[in-house]
Amino acid sequence: MSNNLEITNNTGDQIDETEEFVKQHYGTVTYLEYFCRILPKIELHAHLNGSISKNSVCELLKQKGNTSLKMPHFSKETFNLETCFEMFKFMHQLSNSEKNLRFIVKMVIQEFFEDGCTYLELRTTPRQLNNLTKAEYVELILEEIKLNPHDIFVSLLLSLDRRHTAEEAFEIVDLAIKASNRSFNTGVVVGIDVCGDPYAGDFEIIKPAILKAKALGLQSTIHLGEIDGREFEINSMLETFPNRIGHGTFIPKNCLSEVYSKKIPVEVCLTSNVLCKTVKSIKDHHIKEYFFLEKHPCTDDKGIFFSDLSNEYVQLVLNFKLTKQEVFDLSKNAMKHTFLDSNIEDQLQVKNRIFDKFEKFRDQFNLI
Ligand SMILES: [Zn+2]
Question: Domain Adenosine deaminase, which positions (predicted)?
């Protein structure tokens, strides 16, 4: 990103009318980028396989040696929700062995740490690999989380895919329940997610498994309203009392009143939405409509959209003119909506340590 304020973001939108604001509040764009990078950040919506960076993709392809596997390439114009799922298929082919999966978890955590994240809730759909059961797949990821040497706290959500059968969905919920009963230091599952191609599957089939997870105390987030015209489905999703909503791009008015009354926070993925063409531009993003909802900037798939969490904050500032104090408040506010449980001693300790980092940053920049 240049310092002359003629900025083109990852989504190709021209940013204008920001020069005076950035000058007044940050001095330069370079300083704004610096501020957003060192800001303690909380990532609540990151898919493991979608977060594999280009560098890691190259390394994994190199290790595979003579392979016909190639990363699909899409231009900004041809990229959309369908091509996004093609990218996922490619990423899944890279993470199809124990060795590669360990490498991917390690690198994704390291990259979020290098981006200034202080807490990361990674999500993944348990898969059966050649020599690994779904339970072993989860265990392996938790082992890598435990080995994380960086100053970033990491926990895991297990994702149910919309295309799952009821049996598959219950299997994942059972895995999540089992893996939630362990200490944070050994890697812990803190909730479940519902994801997958929004044009596919039937939410009603996996709904009973979600209700079971909720009844047993797991928290949940749901990719909700990613595409238009799904009122019937959104109503059903809201009946499961999700603790957070992923995207929430197309929430009909009558459903929105329920989201407001339940005060469900939204995981906002600006670059992802624009590149998938579910919103026209960042300036037109539905984030500005949801006045009474808590909103948290997230990356979704930083490896697919080439946008880390710092960049998501930079884009917010450039498009919606946020001051340093507003950026800080937004980031710190996400602490309220992690799935860490304050009633569990070691998770409470993690929350306190994250809080201390925000306090230190606040003092460093004379914020309130
Ligand atoms: Zn997502």
Answer: 40-348
